[in-house]
Every structure is written in structure tokens, then in C-alpha cells.
Write a structure and sequence with these properties.
The complex is a heterodimer. Chain A is α+β, with helices and mostly antiparallel strands. Chain A contains nine helices and 20 strands. Chain A has a six-stranded mixed beta sheet with strand order 6-7-8-3-9-10, sandwiched between helices. Chain A has a five-stranded antiparallel beta sheet with strand order 13-12-11-14-20. In chain A, strands 15-19-16-17-18 form a five-stranded antiparallel beta sheet, with no helix packed on it. In chain B, about 75% of the residues lie in helices and about 0% in strands. In chain B, helix 3 packs parallel to helix 7 and helix 3 runs antiparallel to helix 10. The longest helix of chain B has about 35 residues. The chains are: A alpha+beta, B mainly alpha.
């Protein structure tokens, strides 16, 4: 049970604004779980409730099997890496890392030894005498990590710890933090709005929207099969279309969008004839095709090239199909010279069409 | 024009005012402190250190010690009273109410300090508000006025805003996440106060203490009005030299002795003071 976090029906409102609504979630011991969502989705509030900085209006929080809902932050077996690190400016780097151990009234020798070890672990050995203000952003972030893990918490909470770093450093830190977590075997609950970060680091991702968890699962599962329109949108399924189900037969659903594009989707059992559904297609599942080439079973739609967005390793084409505009990702390897306004055909298999729920739309 | 010259030019009006209004009078005072009083209270300009020798006599050193004691007690009491108030103002009070509450802190300045001291006399004297109330309850009357406690009360009352404001300034900008980090690392409220809040509000503590201590050292009005004739402090002593005793040279020497004490203190605490300028 060590390191397990169970959230039961958690709710929190600030004034009239519901930040977290009825969230239930189980984080397994030793797991790297990411709370992913846009700003204002409630992910940070949820983390702060686990840390003990906010008291929930409803629900329970259990850590390693113990109900900690009523326990103050300083009595919870969790530690936090803050978004802006929150390093004590009046203490040295070593003084910052030692703070928690001093609160536990450890002996001087033990503190010195553990601080040294923690700083080496985050590759800051020898910088213990510096002030936090004398360190770079990346180094400060490491101090914040060392300060939290030196206490060997059962759960480590990380609140967008890399948001303030530049891209290159962020990419390095992703790997470093993930490795650290695997080495320590501590449960990590990680908050981010960066889907790439979430996909790289997590064992499981919980996608949050408007105070609720919309979907929980391993990165591959979420990426391959987003359940809702929101999750699909957030995980870069760029082509989201509203369509009417024309017919459902022999494992295929025939769809027609408002803009007049017709194509087939693999029937997952959720299509009802005459119903209106949201579907999504990833840009990299769509190909630009010439002449007759393309699989027989694939959808094939004629359109016009509208825009080219060159991204180095790939090019995103905006293709006008009837009233709809689709985004097609073409990898640099297979690219060929094209001109804007050129007539093209796009092709994608029915299996690439993801049926998406739209709980927000239903509520509206 | 070089920046150096520009700086000089910009500082010139202030420099002139300082020379005319501070340096020159001080020089004149210092000159007269070296002189001697004439029979009718004038200054005889015959230089000697006699006044300073006299100022260092045990009688006057005891009064200086009283003044230092009063200033220390005032500073300490102000700190104890102001810290919770400033903490609440800066961190507890709803942000929208803060500016209104700060106006309340400086509201006493709208009335002359002299008038406010007389108000205290009305409250503390034998037939005053407090004793009347006590009388109704069948108690008293107590001797609340014309003693050291009354002087201290008046000083603390008068200086409190000068302690609250710098403390407020340093507590208000204290990053909330630092206190959360302290709690997160296992520090209960008291230990977080001791290990994080207090050290980080040190600039405010130092600035407020200096702002309260220095004027309290030379305090005149509260000792004079609330202390009566029986209690002598440096402020009342110097004032009496210039008026009743008509010994301006000795009064001037006492003033410079007091300035010297302040100077020594400022030099001693220059380290923390430099920090407080960042506040």
C-alpha cells in the first residue's frame, strides 16, 4: 500500500467557481501519474489538496491507506516540488535541502550526509554553499527536487516543475526526472499542461477538464484511443469533425460532415444511424495521394491545398475538402514539392476515424 | 555632459538645502557647545570641552541610560504589538480591504501629536476616563499619569505606525509558496514562523526598529506631558537647558552626545540596515 494515493469524490470550489468536481482516482504505489490539462482545469488544485495546502469541500484523500483529509500539510508523508521552486532565499542550497531533515530533528552528521547525497543525486555536488539566487533556473529546479526527495516521501508531488525552463533544458529534465523516479521507486504525481511531457514521462495520464477527470490511462492508450472530444483535442488529434451517421453496416459507419465531406469509420458499436457524432482523425493518419494510389478500403476525398506549415521534420498541409479544412501531416522523407491551390486527394483508413464523446456538448 | 556631472547637478538643490538647513545649524550648535553660558543666558565663545566633560558625569549618564532604556522598551513593545498586526494586514486581511486598513494605521497623523498626548492625559488623569470607569466599578483611582509607564505608553502609541508600515511592506511581499514549502517539509506553524517568516521579514524588523528607536531616544513630548516634572529623559533635559536653565552650550553638548549614540548604533547595525534597503 506504500505510496498509494486514493482520492474519493473530491470537490473544491473557490467562491462560485468549482475548481475540482467529484474526482475519484487511484494512484498506485511507485507509479508516475500525470495530471494533464489546460490552465484552470483544476489539476493544480487537486495536487494542492493532496499536499494539504487546500482543504477539500467534499471527499476523502488516502495516502498509503491512511485517511489524511484532515491532516495539515506538515503531517503528510508527501513532499512537493513547486512550480517556481519556492526555495528559501535566506538559506544556502545545502540549507534548503537540510530544512526538512532539521524539522525531523535529525542529527547533524546524518543531515550533512543525506544532504550531500541528495545534491550529488541531482548533480549539484559542491554547490551546497551557494545561494539559490546564484543558480540557473535548471539548477534551482534540481535543488527543489533534492529538497523534496531527501526526505524519502511516500509520494512526491510536482506542480509544473519545468514550466519555467527553456525547451532544451525541459527535454533533458524530462528524462532525468523519469530516471530519478524509477531509481527511487517513489510515487510521483506530476502536474503539467504539456501533452508531450505527459506522454514521455508517465506510467499513466489523467486528463482533466473543467474540474473533472475525463480519461485515465497509459500514454499509448490515451494517444491511440482518446475517449472524448476534449481529450482528443488536447492530445493533438487536429481534425475534429461533427458528422451525421448516414448508415451503419458490416462493421463500417458511413458519415457525412456538415461541410459535406463523406467517409467511412470503423464501427466500434457506438454509432447510431441518424445520430450526430464527433469524430477525430490524427493528421499523421491522413495521406496526400496522387492518381489512383491508396488502399481500396481507405476513405478518399478530393480537395485543394490551402496552406503549408513547414515544421522541419514534417510539413502540415491544410487541405480544403468541401466546407471542411483538414490538417495532413507529411513527414519530410516522403515530401514532394506542392503549390498552394493545387488540387489534391487525401486518404485515410476507416480505422483512423476515432469516435469521440462530447459530454460538454451534451450538457450544453 | 558626463553622468557624474549630471548627477552632481541633480543633487545640487538637495545639497544646498542640506547645507543651509542641516550642516550650517549643526556647525553653529557645535560651536556653541564648546562655549560657555553668560550670566544672562547668552553664549560666550571661549572654546573648551567642559560641557562634554559635564555631560559625561554620572548624573547625566544615568539620564542617557534612562532614555536608551525607554527607546529600547518602546522599540521592543512596538515590535511585539506591530508584528501580528502587520502580519494580518499583509497576509490575512482581504486584499481589497488592505488600503483602507492602512489608512487607519496612519489616521492618527491627521491630528497633531501634541493634541493626541493631551487626549491621553484626559484619559489617564485621576478624574480621567479610565479612573472614572474604574470608580463606577468601585475600584481605583489609580495613578496612571506622570510616571514612566505613562511615558512608555505614549511613546509606543506614537511610534507604532512607524513599526507597522515597514513590517507590513516586508510581510506583504513574502511569497506564500515559501510558507507552503515550509509546511510541506514538515514545519508546523510556529516553526515556519521562526525559520521562514521571521528571517525573511528581517529587513522590515530592522527598518522599523531604527525608525522607532532613534526618535524615541530623543523623545520630548511624551516624557514632558505624560511624565510630568518627576521624570527626566534626554529630550526633556535638553529642552530645559535651552529654556528654563538658559544654558544653550550645555544643551548643545547633550544633543551632540545623543547624536553620537545614534551614530554608533547605526554603524554597529550597518550590515542588517543595508539589507533592509532592499525592502
Amino acid at each position: 500500500m506504500r505510496g498509494q494515493v486514493v482520492l474519493e469524490g473530491l470537490g473544491k470550489a473557490f467562491g462560485d467557481v468549482a475548481a475540482v468536481r467529484d474526482v475519484s482516482l487511484e494512484v498506485r504505489g511507485g507509479e508516475f501519474l500525470t495530471l494533464l490539462g489546460p490552465s484552470g482545469c483544476g489539476k493544480t488544485t487537486l495536487l494542492r489538496m493532496i499536499a494539504g495546502f487546500e482543504a477539500p469541500d467534499a471527499g476523502r484523500i488516502l495516502i498509503s491507506g491512511h485517511d489524511v483529509t484532515a491532516r495539515p500539510a506538515y503531517e503528510r508523508p508527501v513532499n512537493t516540488v513547486f512550480q517556481h521552486y519556492a526555495l528559501f532565499p535566506h538559506r544556502t542550497v545545502a540549507g534548503n535541502v537540510a530544512f526538512g531533515l532539521q524539522m525531523q530533528r535529525r542529527g547533524k552528521a546524518e543531515i550533512a550526509e543525506r544532504v550531500e547525497r541528495a545534491l550529488e543525486m541531482v548533480r549539484l555536488g559542491g554547490l551546497g554553499d551557494r545561494r539559490p539566487s546564484q543558480l540557473s533556473g535548471g539548477q534551482q529546479q534540481r535543488v527543489a527536487l533534492a529538497r523534496a526527495v531527501v526526505l524519502e516521501p511516500e509520494v512526491l508531488l510536482l506542480d509544473e516543475p519545468m514550466a519555467a525552463l527553456d525547451l532544451k533544458l525541459r527535454q533533458e529534465m524530462r528524462v532525468e526526472v523519469k530516471n530519478l523516479q524509477e531509481r527511487l521507486g517513489i510515487t510521483f504525481v506530476f502536474v503539467t499542461h504539456d501533452q508531450e511531457e505527459a506522454l514521455v514521462m508517465s506510467d499513466r495520464i489523467a486528463v482533466m477538464n473543467r474540474g473533472r477527470i475525463e480519461q485515465v490511462g497509459p500514454p499509448e492508450a490515451l494517444y491511440d484511443r482518446p475517449r472524448t472530444r476534449f481529450v482528443a483535442d488536447f492530445l493533438a488529434v487536429r481534425n475534429l469533425l461533427q458528422a451525421t451517421v448516414v448508415s451503419v453496416a458490416s462493421g463500417l459507419a458511413a458519415l457525412r460532415t456538415r461541410g459535406g465531406a463523406s467517409f467511412q469509420a470503423k464501427d466500434d458499436g457506438g454509432y447510431r444511424e441518424g445520430g450526430v457524432v464527433w469524430v477525430g482523425v490524427r493528421p499523421e493518419r491522413i495521406r496526400l495521394v496522387e492518381g489512383r494510389e491508396s488502399g481500396d478500403a481507405d476513405n478518399r476525398l478530393g480537395g485543394t491545398l490551402e496552406d503549408e506549415i513547414y515544421l522541419g521534420d514534417r510539413t502540415d498541409w491544410r487541405v480544403r475538402v468541401g466546407e471542411e479544412t483538414l490538417t495532413v501531416a507529411e513527414s519530410a522523407a516522403g515530401a514532394r514539392a506542392r503549390r498552394r491551390g493545387e488540387p489534391v486527394a487525401v486518404s485515410f483508413p476507416p480505422a483512423a476515424v476515432l469516435r469521440l464523446e462530447d459530454p460538454e456538448g451534451e450538457a450544453r | 555632459m558626463t553622468t557624474r556631472r549630471a548627477a552632481l547637478l541633480l543633487a545640487l538643490p538637495c545639497l544646498l538645502a542640506l547645507v543651509a538647513l542641516f550642516v550650517a545649524p549643526q556647525a553653529l550648535m557645535f560651536e556653541s557647545s564648546l562655549g560657555r553660558r553668560s550670566f544672562y543666558g547668552g553664549v560666550i565663545h571661549q572654546w573648551s570641552l567642559d560641557n562634554y566633560r559635564r555631560a559625561l558625569e554620572p548624573l547625566y549618564l544615568a539620564i542617557l541610560a534612562r532614555s536608551v532604556g525607554l527607546a529600547l522598551a518602546t522599540t521592543l513593545l512596538c515590535l511585539l504589538l506591530a508584528y501580528p498586526a502587520a502580519y494580518w494586514l499583509g497576509r490575512g486581511a482581504p486584499p481589497r480591504a488592505r488600503s483602507a486598513l492602512l489608512v487607519l494605521v496612519i489616521l492618527p497623523f491627521w491630528t497633531s501629536f501634541l493634541v493626541r498626548m493631551y487626549a491621553w492625559i484626559f484619559m489617564l488623569r485621576t478624574e480621567g476616563l479610565v479612573n472614572t470607569a474604574l470608580g463606577v466599578a468601585g475600584l481605583g483611582p489609580l495613578n496612571l499619569l506622570y510616571n514612566d509607564a505613562a511615558v512608555l505608553l505614549g511613546q509606543v502609541y506614537g511610534e507604532l505606525p512607524f513599526m507597522i508600515l515597514p513590517l507590513y511592506a516586508s510581510l506583504e511581499k513574502l511569497d506564500r509558496s515559501l510558507l507552503e514549502a515550509a509546511a510541506d517539509l514538515g514545519a508546523g506553524p510556529l516553526r515556519a514562523l521562526w525559520r521562514v517568516t521571521l528571517p525573511l521579514s528581517r529587513p522590515g524588523i530592522v527598518a522599523g526598529s531604527v525608525l522607532v528607536f532613534i526618535p524615541s531616544l530623543g523623545a520630548y513630548l511624551a516624557p514632558d506631558l505624560l511624565g510630568g516634572a518627576r521624570t527626566v529623559y534626554m529630550g526633556t533635559l535638553i529642552q530645559s537647558q535651552f529654556t528654563f536653565v538658559r544654558d544653550a552650550p550645555f544643551g548643545a553638548a547633550l544633543s551632540f552626545l545623543l547624536s553620537l549614540v545614534v551614530l554608533v548604533l547605526l554603524v554597529t547595525f550597518r550590515g542588517p540596515l543595508r539589507e533592509s534597503r532592499g525592502a
